[in-house]
Write a structure and sequence with these properties.
By secondary structure, this protein is of the alpha/beta class. The chain is built from nine helices and seven strands; from the N terminus they run H-H-E-H-E-H-H-E-H-E-H-E-E-E-H-H. The strands form two sheets. A five-stranded parallel β-sheet has the order 2-1-3-4-5, sandwiched between helices. It has a two-stranded antiparallel ribbon with strand order 6-7. 40% of the residues are buried.
Length: 251
């Protein structure tokens, strides 16, 4: 570790990753935003899924001030965060074959919808099967992952494939394998993960692209406002009523 304070080092590392996304993923971000705008314009619904800490970035898109009202969370019980006890059970469930099929069979997903699947490693059975089965249903799939894992780790799916192999579009978060930005001579393990802040920023860049793409087509994007500003609740009630058949988190 350098002489600079670790807080500054971490923030610099996160900024460096964000700059890489801006410069290297611009075309993919634009394509993803266009795909979601197409889905909204064509009457489709939007869903986001992530397991473990990847679920944080998915949850950040749902029922979000400044976000698209049509984004729904595709939740898998036991894997949406560390609230499940014991916490390692969530990690184990990501490796269970067939779980994705059961989730999709009981979900409202249908042909013409779009699904964001967020998985840092993209190597576990759950995100791989989720992508495979969703596409078989006619759902457009955007994978958000670190492509580096596919060349530096072994797939945990029977096919030997990764999330990136089963998507219509891929957004590469650029996170290094292991998700830790800092090291220290006296600390035996690397530390300071950046995947949450980077992945959330990447997805919000996609949402911004979606909103402006819709507006450029003359379609008012179905955005939510903060409930903590005057008029916010009334605005949100109007949007939710207008799109009630495409919003599932209010039922």
């Amino acid at each position: 570790m350098s002489d600079r304070a670790p807080a500054g080092q971490f923030i610099d590392a996160a900024i460096g990753l964000l700059r890489r996304l801006r410069d290297e993923e611009a075309d993919s971000i634009a394509a993803a935003g266009t795909l979601l705008a197409d889905t909204v314009a064509d009457g489709g619904r939007l869903f986001a899924f992530g397991a473990g800490h990847s679920s944080l970035a998915a949850q950040d898109l749902v029922y979000r001030a400044g976000g698209l009202a049509l984004m729904n969370l595709l939740a898998v019980p036991g894997v949406v965060g560390v609230d499940v006890m014991p916490a390692p059970l969530g990690s184990a469930l990501e490796r269970v074959d067939g779980l994705a099929s059961a989730v999709l069979d009981s979900s409202p997903l249908r042909a013409g919808d779009a699904l964001l699947i967020i998985s840092l490693s993209g190597r576990n059975a759950l995100p791989v099967e989720m992508a495979m089965n969703a596409r078989a249903l006619g759902v457009k799939v955007i994978g958000v992952t670190s492509v580096a894992y596919a060349s530096e780790t072994k797939s945990r799916h029977a096919s030997g494939t990764y999330l990136k192999d089963h998507c219509d579009l891929i957004l590469d978060s650029k996170i290094a394998v292991g998700d830790a930005e800092l090291t220290h001579d006296d600390i035996p393990a690397p530390f300071a993960p950046a995947s949450t802040v980077v992945t959330s920023a990447l997805l919000q860049a996609v949402m911004a692209t979606t909103a402006t793409t819709l507006a450029d087509r003359g379609i008012e994007p179905p955005l939510l406002r903060s409930g903590n500003v005057d008029g916010g609740h009334d605005w949100n009630a109007r949007v939710m009523e207008q799109y009630r058949d495409r919003i599932f988190y209010r039922h």
